[in-house]
UniProtKB/TrEMBL annotation:
Top-level taxon in the UniProt lineage: Eukaryota
GO MF term set: ubiquitin protein ligase activity; zinc ion binding
Organism: Malus baccata
EC class (word): transferase
GO biological process terms, semicolon-separated: proteasome-mediated ubiquitin-dependent protein catabolic process; vegetative to reproductive phase transition of meristem
Name of the molecule in the record: RING-type E3 ubiquitin transferase
Amino acid sequence: MLFDPFIYHGMAEMHDRHRDMRLDVDNMSYEELLALGERIGDVSTGLSEETIMKCMKHRKFLAISEESPADMEPCCVCQEVYADEDDIGTLDCGHDFHTSCIKQWLMQKNLCPICKTTALLT
């Protein structure tokens, strides 16, 4: 016979006190989701411009090889290939972007658009 600590301590019949507080958003209608959004409000997970500029690593892009533009990785935010002397911002995960592109992104959400990890630890 296996030892079950929940049954042993008489907790097998315990009611989940928080069950009624949980929302099942997967089964809510569009109107219910809109109403919920109005009640909750806008939740910003972004960073301030000052925090971004202070915490992000900055550098200039220098094209040192004769690679064709098709061989180069573009900025995944704007999909443009980096040009010589472009301002590049590097996140804590190591991914690079145009500074202006990633700054706008991080003001909305502090996640890397590629790997979804926390972009900048503050």
